Recover the amino acids of this structure.
C-alpha cells in the first residue's frame, strides 16, 4: 500500500497530537504554519516543513486543519478546490452558515471531509454507542455527559464569551456524543456561567450546561467545565438510561496500572491514544479502506447544536432545530 501524503496546517498543541498520530499511522507529513513554528515542530517529529499553504497542498492526499476556527473555511475550500481530502479539528467552522458551506462543497466535489472529534474514538464512548445501538439498554431515554478540563487559555485568548465560549468549544464533545448515541436534536436549552474576557485572564473558569431534546424523544444533558488549575486533570463521565437498563462510566474510577521494568509507572488509562485511533481510521479511508465512524454531516450537526446553545444561553430561551421527518 502506498504512503499517504498529509499536509498539516498549524503548529500548536492539537497539531502536535495530530502529527504524532499521522506518523504512527504511516503517513508522510509536511507542516505549514503562518506563525513560523512549522520548522521546529516538523524537525522534532522528523516531518518536513513547507513555506506556504499552496506548497503544503501540492501533491497532498489530505490536509489536516489545526488552525484557529475562523480560518477553517478558507483552508478547507482551498483544499477541496484542488481535490485534496480534508480533516478538520473541531469545530468545523465558526458559524453554522460556514459549516454548511464547507459540507456542501465536499458533497458537490466528492472530496472527503472528516471532522476530528477525538472523544468519539475513546474506547468508553465507542462501547457506549455500540451498547445503545444494539438495543443493550432497550430504547434510550435519558443521558448525562460530563466533561471538565483546565481552561485552554492559548485557544481562547482572543475569544469573547459572546461567541459561546465553552458552549462552542468543550461542550461540543458532549453534544456530538449525545447526537451519536440518541440521534437528531430538535430542541436546545443552554446556560452559561463565567465571563471570558479578551484576552482571557489566567485562572479563568466557566461552566456550560445544555439540555438536548432528540427527535426520538430522548433527553440528554451535557455539563462542561473549565477549571482554574490543571489539577484535578481532565475528567469525563456519562450515565445513559433506557427502557431496559443503564450504562455508566467515569474516568476517575480506578484504571489499569502500566508497569515497565518491574516498576509501576503510574496510574492511568493504558489504552491507545484517541488521536492514534482517529488518524488511523482517517488514513485507511483516504487509502480506499472503510469509512471512519464519523463524517461531514456529523460535523455540521455538532456546529448547529453548539451554535443553538450559544443563542439559547444569551437569549434565555430554548432554540428549536427542526429536522426533516421528525415528529
Amino acid at each position: 500500500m502506498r504512503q499517504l501524503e498529509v499536509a498539516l496546517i498549524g503548529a500548536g498543541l492539537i497539531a502536535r497530537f495530530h502529527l504524532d498520530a499521522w506518523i504512527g499511522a504511516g503517513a508522510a507529513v509536511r507542516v505549514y504554519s503562518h506563525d513560523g513554528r512549522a520548522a521546529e515542530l516538523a524537525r522534532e517529529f522528523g516531518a518536513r516543513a513547507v513555506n506556504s499553504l499552496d506548497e503544503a497542498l501540492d501533491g497532498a492526499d489530505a490536509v489536516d486543519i489545526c488552525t484557529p476556527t475562523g480560518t477553517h473555511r478558507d483552508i478547507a475550500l482551498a483544499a477541496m478546490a484542488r481535490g485534496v481530502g480534508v480533516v478538520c479539528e473541531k469545530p468545523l467552522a465558526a458559524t453554522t452558515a460556514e459549516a454548511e458551506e464547507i459540507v456542501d462543497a465536499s458533497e458537490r466535489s466528492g472530496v472527503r471531509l472528516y471532522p476530528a472529534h477525538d472523544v468519539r474514538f475513546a474506547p468508553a464512548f465507542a462501547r457506549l454507542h455500540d451498547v445503545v445501538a444494539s438495543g443493550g439498554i432497550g430504547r434510550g431515554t435519558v443521558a448525562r455527559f460530563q466533561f471538565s478540563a483546565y481552561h485552554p487559555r492559548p485557544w481562547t485568548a482572543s475569544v469573547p464569551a459572546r461567541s459561546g465560549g465553552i458552549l462552542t468549544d468543550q461542550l461540543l464533545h458532549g453534544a456530538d456524543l449525545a447526537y451519536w448515541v440518541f440521534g437528531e436534536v430538535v430542541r436546545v436549552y443552554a446556560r452559561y456561567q463565567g465571563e471570558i474576557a479578551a484576552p482571557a485572564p489566567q485562572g479563568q473558569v466557566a461552566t456550560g450546561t445544555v439540555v438536548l431534546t432528540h427527535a426520538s424523544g430522548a433527553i440528554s444533558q451535557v455539563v462542561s467545565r473549565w477549571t482554574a488549575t490543571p489539577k484535578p486533570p481532565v475528567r469525563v463521565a456519562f450515565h445513559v438510561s433506557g427502557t431496559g437498563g443503564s450504562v455508566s462510566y467515569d474516568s476517575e474510577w480506578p484504571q489499569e496500572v502500566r508497569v515497565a521494568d518491574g516498576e509501576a509507572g503510574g496510574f492511568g488509562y493504558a489504552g491507545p491514544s484517541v488521536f492514534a485511533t482517529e488518524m488511523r481510521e482517517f488514513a485507511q479511508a483516504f487509502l480506499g479502506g472503510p469509512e471512519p465512524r464519523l463524517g461531514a454531516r456529523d460535523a455540521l450537526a455538532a456546529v448547529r447544536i453548539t451554535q443553538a446553545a450559544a443563542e439559547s444561553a444569551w437569549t434565555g430561551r430554548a432554540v428549536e432545530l427542526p429536522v426533516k421527518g421528525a415528529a
Notes: DSSP finds ten helices and 15 strands in the chain. The longest strand covers residues 140-150.
